[in-house]
Specification:
Radius of gyration: 24 Å
CATH class of the largest domain: Mainly Alpha
CATH architecture of the largest domain: Orthogonal Bundle
Largest sheet: 5 strands, parallel
Number of helices: 22
Strand content: 5-15%
Shape: globular
Structural class: mainly alpha
Number of domains: 3
CATH superfamily of the largest domain: DNA Cyclobutane Dipyrimidine Photolyase, subunit A, domain 3
Amino acid sequence: MIVHWHRKDLRGVDNRALARAAQADRLVPVFVLDPTILEYASPVRVACLLEALADLRAWYRDRGSDLLVVRGNAREVIPSLAAERDAARVVWNEDYSGLAAERDEAVRAALEEEGIDHESVTDGLHHEPGSISPNEGDHYSVFSYFWKKWRDREKADPAPAPTTDELADLEDASESEANPIPSLSELGFDEPDADPPAVTRDAARERLETFCSDAIYRYADERDVPAAGTTSRLSTHLKWGTIGPREVYVETERALEDAPDEDARESVVAFRRQLAFREFYVHLLAFNPETVTEDFSGYESDLEWRNDPDELAAWRAGETGYPIVDAGMRQLRSEGWVHNRVRMLVASFLTKDLLVDWREGYDWYRHYLADHETSSDVAGWQWAASTGADAQPYFRVFNPTKQGREYDPDAAYIREHVPELEDVPADRIHEWPDLDTEERAELAPDYPEPIVDHANRREEAIATFEDARDEG
DNA sequence: CATGCATTCGC
DNA sequence: CGAATGCAT
């Protein structure tokens, strides 16, 4: 038999390593709850993980098999489990992010020491790092060139799910009873603040099919409007692997065929472009693992971050007095998810207006986002901070007031997340930082005063970045 | 408000 | 080869 080690591929359908192994021998699926990995987790993410595990276990049990859930260090658990069951091979799907890549190297070494065969394949993205590259060098650092090649390259079909016959019969295995999926508190985590949508196969398929039959056709026009609900919301499923990238792409092909007009077709392509962004960032991190903590493109001298603890606390709490910033920061806590335009805008506010080191923002996202991916979040934060691979110019600073007016004209998104402003008219909300203090107190006595003046802070930020550029 | 990246052009 | 071009969530 072959051991399939599940990691960020919590599904039986469209799972490449699983499908390949199934052709060779009976499968024993296993997931390892590794304390060294859990150290970097957070309540909301562990809650998602446990839900997805329970769902996957049920999927296997429906097929007369089971998912073994083992606690311990993967480098010990995987070889010993393979040896105990006399497995011919251990297979898994690649994870290119820093910590996982290190762990996998250690597991490979341990397996080799035991003389156990192993194999890993690319599954979480269409084109693996190194496969899309410029004429010279191993990866692109500018997205548009990457996109041209990604878009035109042929995509694989979804991988078939293993049949009942291909799965090891684990129905009576005492191991299954001996390794119940632990609870959040058993793993030492508090209940999360957020209550994110279900991380299950049914929820993932439902989301994908709903999105690809309707909203995808308006995606190009509406994706930047947080109140419109036109984004796919597939990020959490892609992160945990409750949906496979090939499944998603196939639905975009169907959507393209069914598209009513040229605008709708372009909209489908606009969505694919976002799928490509995700893969672009995986490549960037795979070839630049140090950028998890280091600036991608450094300035001549270190950036003089202000790092004011009170301002950071206000940003975290969603109490900055800038309505759309606060809406985003509160959505983060309540949903474990934030609309992407708002992610960019709150990131700009933290790194530019408040001049707080992007790593602080990254850590906060890492704690609260159910869909946190090292690759996407590091790249996103560094882009916002103008330290990224394809950084926005340092002098480009989001204007939170303009962004609010432009993308949330009716203030529906703001009001949904900032109840203090529920009864304040949209035009007042959008000019909030420019109103008189008395008027603000009258309109929304419980809502905070703006903690900074954006115009001043913008100037100061640009000056700070210029200083870092010139000296050295 | 710049600059660097990736490609294509021109010598 | 270097210059010119197009372009950047």
